[in-house]
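Q: What would this chain look like folded?
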Amino acid sequence: MTKKKYINNAVHNNKGQLITLMGALLAVAVISIVALSAHLAIIGTFVPAEHSESLLPEFINVKETFAFAVNKSVESISNNHSILEAFEYAKKRIFTIEAKHGLLFNATLNKIYYREPDLPIRYISVTLRLTDGYTTITKTMDIPLYKIHKK
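A: My prediction, written as structure tokens:
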């Protein structure tokens, strides 16, 4: 066998290996993309295709829903721990809902107090914040808690 034929055979064999290697790399890339897509679908996040021009209607809805959620989930307004648990529960639930719409929600509990000691109504002062990355709305508000015991 001449030297020229040996070199041609070696190059020809390398082409087959290159084609096999490229096929394997392509398969790994496709599998990686599928796995990443499945992971993103499982965690339930997406960027909305369209959203409202103004963040204000969504903020008004969040503000009312947050006050309702805290009031519904508090077990006893005479117990600060129960109020803190209700606040954190409402905060986490609304954060999750808003994150699915591409918005970030945060709430801070400022204080728990009675306005009038004779009335069985406690208040919490909270600061609510909602942002879409471009616009941010922040508001401090008082939420009345009416329940004495959850039934």
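The mean pLDDT is 82.
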